[in-house]
Design brief:
The protein has 4 helices and 4 strands; from the N terminus they run H-H-H-H-E-E-E-E. It is an alpha+beta fold.
């Protein structure tokens, strides 16, 4: 009798695990794929900033970003940092949060980046949205 109860509990637990994996595994795999794509986009975006190719960096912005910030204002903001801190030497990811919601899935990624310049560093929060089949810059702000 006790063995039968253990088998039933074991069977329920295994069934629950199989059902849970069936529903969560595709989401975990999609999240991993999106994280890799976001990191690649950030690498290209930050490389453009390091090379002072502000038109290329600006092109990573989505339609809302471009509607809120003109290319010359974006370039001016970047040049201001360079004039204060010297040439940008590197940019790296200190941390990130990526999540999807809704159906169809809407992906949002926030990257806490550190930009290292010749005379100092700046911490930036950059928000990216997955739109039109690729990650696009939605906005950014300097943080402490």
């Amino acid at each position: 009798m006790l063995k039968n109860k253990k088998r039933i509990v074991y069977g329920i637990a295994v069934t629950f695990l199989v059902v849970a994996l069936t529903y969560t595994l595709p989401l975990l795999l999609a999240g991993h794929k999106q994280r890799k794509a976001l990191e690649a986009t950030f690498t290209h975006y930050s490389s453009a900033l390091i090379q002072e190719d502000y038109p290329s960096a600006y092109s990573f912005g989505d339609a809302e970003f471009r509607a809120q910030l003109k290319p010359e204002d974006f370039a001016s903001q970047q040049k201001s940092l360079v004039s204060k801190l010297g040439r940008m030497e590197s940019a790296g990811i200190e941390g990130y949060d990526i999540h999807g919601q809704g159906s169809p899935m809407r992906w949002i990624g926030v990257i806490r980046e550190i930009r290292r310049y010749e005379k100092g560093e700046v911490h930036i929060l950059s928000e990216f949205h997955f739109e039109e089949g690729h990650w696009q810059l939605f906005g950014y702000k300097e943080v402490n």
